[in-house]
Structure formats: C-alpha cells, structure tokens
Amino acid sequence: MTELPFQQATTLNARQNRALALAGVFQATQLTHMTALTGQQGIGDTGNFYFEQLIKASLNIRPSGTLNVQTLDFFNQLADISLGLKTLESSITQPFDTGPKSRLPKLSSTKLPMSYAMALLQLEKKVYSNPKFVEIIEQSQQKILRQLSFFDNNYMHPSIIANLAQTYVDTAGQINPRIMVRGNAEAFKDSGHTNRIRASLFTGLQMAHLWRRLGGSSWGMIFGKRKLLQDIQNLARIQFQVV
C-alpha cells in the first residue's frame, strides 16, 4: 500500500466533497472528449496537466480504502480539478441558462462529456460489485506504482498510460453497453491515441467510485442540481479566495 501523495489543509463539507469528486468524473470525460476530437497535441500542456492529476488520484483511490477521506486527499489543490468544475457547472446550467453568472468560464459544449460521465457512474456500480474486477484494479494499481520507479515517476509515460487503458478494457470494457466515444476516425487507428482515451475513462471510473463512497447517488444528483450548482460555485470561491 502506498501512502497518499498529498495532504490538504482545506476542509470541505460532505456536499462539497461529493461535488468535487463528481467534478473529477467530468474532468476525465472532458479530457476523453477533447482527446478523441483533437488528439494528444490538441489538449496541450494544460490538458496533460489535468490528465496527470487524475492519473495520480486514480492510483490511490482503493476499493478497500478508508471511508474517512476528503477528495482533496488525492489532489494537491482545487485548481487540479478546475477543468472538471467548469465542465460540471456547464453541464448543469447550459440547458437552462445560456449565460450563467460564474467565475468559471463557460465551455462551448458539454453534451458528450455529460453522456460519458453518466455512463461511467452506471459502470462504476457494476465494476465494483464484481470481485474479479476489483481484484484486477487493485493488482493493476500495485503494478503501476512499482513501474513508476523505473520511469522516474513519469505518470504520463506511454507504458503507464497503456497499463491504465488495459485496466479499463479488462474491467469496464467487459460490461455492456460499452461507452462509445465519438471522435476522429483516423486518430482511433493509433494505439497511443486510444490508450489515452481509455486511460482517461479509467480515471473517471475511479473518481466515480470515490464519489459513490462519499455518498453520491445518481438520483441525488438529478434532483439536487440546485444544491450541486451552489456547491460548485462555493468551491470556485474557495479556489479564487473570494469572500
């Protein structure tokens, strides 16, 4: 067992913790969407930064971990999940308000990231109710954490990403209906491209598991959109230190 890499002084309430974990799911699906459309070069250094933070977190979110955790135990700072907060907020507000008043910039479209996120929330329940899949995830986490020492702790190394992708294929990828990612057909012929997409989905699966452990539920999210939006905006105020 590897110790969690970060400890954060900021204390969030239960709802904020759930909202932040859910934002992690949406960060993963937004990266999935961006990568599918534009490839590795298209998401740039900023996208790679957000991807790396999710990879680090996904390797430390354990099936048998303690329940007494905060989402920020797995991240260095709120800014590490700001893409997810933007995506989640836009997913909530766009159908009702074309110009939400927020410090978080509006994204052009969140329809596909939203559909991927909802699918991951459903897949997570099926994956983590299967002891075989849970064992695969635990063994993969241990294997990758050992490999990191050979790659100078480079979480973005192609071998690390390939192993994360294979873990997704061996678990969530075995369950129907599978998530069908839309994107550049030519790019999907490149194994490195598809590995990044599947690895992104795996990090989203892990964030969905954390969200569920923190008390998240699909019904609660659907019928609690107003509270969820309030939590997201409060997290933005904390991030930008606005009183």
What is the CATH architecture descriptor? Orthogonal Bundle
The succession of helices and strands, N to C, reads HHHHHHHH
Q: What is the mean pLDDT?
A: 87
Q: Kindly estimate the percentage of residues that lie in beta strands according to DSSP.
A: under 5%
Number of strands: 0
Please name the fourth-level CATH homologous superfamily.
HflD-like
Structural class: mainly alpha
Q: Ranges with pLDDT <50 over ≥5 residues?
A: 1-8, 96-101
Characteristics of this structure?
62% helix, 243 residues, 8 helices, YcfC-like, mainly alpha
Short overview:
This protein has 243 residues and is mostly helical. The protein has 8 helices and no strands.
Structure description:
The structure is a single chain. The model is unreliable at 1-8 and 96-101 (pLDDT under 50). α2 packs antiparallel against α8, α3 (111-128) packs across α6 (191-213) and α5 (158-170) crosses α6. This protein is globular. By secondary structure, it is mainly α. The chain is built from eight helices and no strands. It has helices spanning 14-58, 82-93, 111-128, 131-147, 158-170, 191-213, 218-223, 225-240. It has one domain (14-240): YcfC-like.
